[in-house]
Amino acid sequence: MAIRAQYLGMPLSIDDLDVENLEYFRHCAEHDFHLQACAQCGRLRYPPTTACPWCAALESTWKRVEGNGAVHSYSEVHHAIQPAFRDHTPYLILLVDLDTQKGEPTADEALRVAGNLTTPDGQLAPPDQVRRVGIGTRVRMVFSDVAPGLAFPQWTIDETASQPEHPWRYPQE
Ligand SMILES: [Zn+2]
Fold first, then answer.
1. pTM higher than 0.85 for the full model?
2. 140: exposed, middle or buried (C-beta count within 10 Å: 0-12, 13-18, 19+)?
3. How many whole angstroms from 12 Cα to the centroid of ligand 1?
4. Which of 69, 87, 141, 145 is the most buried (most CB within 10 A)?
């Protein structure tokens, strides 16, 4: 069933025909992260899509994946172009290397999952947390609930993990 929802006052929709994204976000709404595993080569893929990016096979199954990883790259937004985010600056958009399948199919590759930095309950993180995070920071997945059948996978600082002493941050202060 199609989803029509709002997030921070912005309209969001997923159409009936977009079965991969409906299934992906349905799992997220249950706070359970799943990715498609290729029926032919077995590799997981992100984002959800109709065919395997490595072997082009169409068949796949959904597999539960641990939401643990390290920040591969980030963007820190201080001037929100989108008005809905104006009251939340500065905020972080993170690209996170999952521990799962890291280094496959080549040493430089990983499943890289995008999300915002949030508090453990899925709210956009306050500035003191934003300042702590850089490349290499260990994060864990949490979820921002949006509507029935729709939650966003997000990232929060993994307070139980051993963290790099100086995660790389763009010099700006
Ligand atoms: Zn494949």
1. yes
2. middle
3. 30
4. 69
